[in-house]
Design a protein that fits this description.
Blueprint lengths: L1 H138 L3 H48 L11 E5 L4 H7 L4 H10 L2 E3 L6 E5 L3 H17 L4 H30 L6 H9 L4 E2 L2 E2 H19 L3 H10 L14 H12 L3 H8 L10 H15 L8 H16 L4 E7 L4 E6 L6 H18 L7 E6 L9
Parallel strand pairs: 7-8
Antiparallel strand pairs: 1-3, 2-3, 4-5, 6-7
Helix pairs in contact: 2-8, 4-6, 5-6, 6-7, 6-8, 8-9, 8-12, 9-11, 9-12, 10-11, 11-12
């Protein structure tokens, strides 16, 4: 049994050994084949590399030959270019040598001419000194004295010429400024128009019959006295049939009396207590109307944020007229014009409109407060408006202060456009004739005046003077003096032109 097992193991071992030997032999054969194949590939790659290197060397030799040929050609061209530059430089050097020779020759000529000029200068100097001595002997003046006289003459001429130039420049600047101002103002005037109303100090209330007059007068005149005391107006009953005339310089009081009287006539119950009741009611209605008028004016002009007291005072101007112009309408027009001028000048349009609207506010209370309406209005505006520019525009719009701001000039110009342009205002015939007569009397009061004529509806005065008593300079002074006297003596809208005419005639007869 043991022998059998050993025999099997021995056979198995022998088989394993034989199999390993066979495997080793097959692997050695396969490795030899791989080695031979690798040697063949290496021999083929080496042959290809040798052929490629031969081709590269051949191409490199061709490129080297081409580069050598190009380099030789380029070197030949550079040598030729250098040769040409050397030739040009040689030519320029020769030309420069010639130029230097010419310059040296000219220098020698200039030196010669300089010497000749020096000799001529010396001769001229001697001649000049000789002439100066002769001039000094003839004029009996030294050279320094003559120079001083010439300098004084030249200085006087320069002063005269500079003054003339300055006047020309000033006139040119003034003309340009006037032209610009005319363009702005004419544009503003064309965009505005105002109505002319009648300036009255009396109102008329119709009566249904003359019997009503007796009832208005009352027993021993108690009714009419009560009405006059309550309203502060004068009632004229006997002048016109079936009508009562209310007379007062205060338009607000006159309007209150008119409304109260109209209500009394319609009511028929006329006695002092009823009169007082209706007058109070009419006063409230008129105040409400004034407030509404002020609010409407503010709305139309486009000025917002005004104090209610200013609006109320502004509404009082509805019942105020000046030279046939309703003051409230005039104030609205001035505000509109101020806004246009401010827009053209690039200024604050809101401030300009507000100053224009409030510029105549003092006329609402000028019968109750002392002072000019400009100063009164400025004080009123100062109480309820914090803008200093608006206050200055109101205070300065008549240009009667020393330091005038742009707002004062702006409101003054707008006020003149609205009130002083032709057709804007209307005067009564009596005041118109009185002003014409006053203008002529003022002019006739000056010495040397032959005759004075007020023309152009009182907007111009032409004065004929005696030429033997008044010369040209005196006529200019007379024009200024007459203007000053007119400004001090008269009240008038707009401006008045004063023209003094001096004429000299020489007449002879040939016989």
């Amino acid at each position: 049994m043991v022998d059998t097992v050993l025999g099997i193991l021995a056979g198995f071992i022998i088989g394993l050994v034989c199999g390993g030997i066979a495997v080793l032999m097959s692997r050695g054969f396969y490795a030899n084949r791989q080695i031979r194949a690798g040697q063949k590939r290496a021999a083929r790659i080496l042959a290809e590399a040798r052929n490629e290197s031969k081709n590269i060397i051949s191409d490199a030799r061709v490129e080297i030959d081409k580069s050598r040929v190009n380099s030789e050609n380029e070197a030949r061209e550079r040598r030729a270019e250098l040769q040409r530059q050397e030739n040009r430089m040689a030519q320029k050097e020769t030309h420069l040598d010639n130029k230097l020779d010419e310059v040296e020759a000219r220098h020698r000529q200039m030196d010669q001419k300089e010497k000749e000029l020096e000799v001529a200068r010396e001769g001229l100097k001697e001649i000049k000194e000789k002439q100066l001595k002769e001039l000094e002997a003839v004029s009996r003046l030294s050279c320094d004295e003559a120079k001083q006289i010439l300098l004084e003459q030249m200085s006087e001429e320069l002063r005269t010429e500079s003054s003339r130039r300055l006047r020309e420049w000033e006139q040119q600047l003034k003309d340009e400024a006037d032209e610009r101002a005319r363009d702005i103002l004419s544009s503003v005037i064309q965009r505005n128009a105002s109505e002319v109303v009648a300036e009255i100090t009396a109102s008329t209330v119709p009566l249904p019959s003359d019997e009503m007059k007796g009832r208005l007068i009352g027993r021993e005149g108690r009714n009419i006295r009560a009405l006059e005391q309550a309203t502060g107006v004068d009632l004229i009953i006997d002048d016109t049939p079936e009508a009562v005339t209310i007379s007062s310089f205060d338009p607000v009081r006159r309007e209150i009396a008119r409304q109260a009287l109209t209500k009394l006539i319609l009511d028929g119950r006329i006695h002092p207590s009823r009169i007082e009741e209706l007058v109070n009611k009419a006063r409230e209605e008129v105040e409400a109307t004034m407030v509404a008028a002020g609010e409407q004016a503010v709305f139309q002009v486009g000025v917002h944020g005004l104090h209610p007291e200013l609006i109320k005072l502004l509404g009082r101007l509805k019942y105020r007229t000046s030279y046939g112009q309703n003051v409230l309408a005039h104030s609205m027009e001035v505000a509109s014009i101020c806004g246009m001028i401010a827009s053209e000048l690039g200024a604050n349009v809101v401030i300009a409109k507000k100053a224009g609207l409030l510029h105549d506010l003092g006329k609402a209370v000028d019968r109750e407060v002392e002072g000019t309406h400009a100063s009164i209005g400025a004080d009123l505006v100062k109480q309820w408006d914090k803008s200093k520019d608006v206050v200055r525009g109101v205070a300065e719009h008549h240009l009667d202060v020393v330091d005038i701001s742009i707002w004062g000039f702006m409101v003054s110009a707008a006020d003149a456009i609205s009130s002083a342009r032709p057709g804007a205002r209307r005067e009564s015939m009596e005041s118109y004739l009185k002003r014409l007569k006053s203008l002529e009397e003022i002019a006739d009061g000056f010495k040397g005046v032959e005759k004075a004529y007020a023309i152009q509806a009182g907007r111009e005065v032409r004065i004929l003077v005696k030429p033997e008593e008044v010369d040209d300079l005196a006529s200019m002074r007379m024009a200024r003096d007459i203007v000053k006297k007119i400004e001090e003596s008269l009240t008038y809208p707009g401006q008045i032109k004063v023209t003094v005419i001096r004429e000299t005639r020489a007449t002879d007869f040939a016989k």
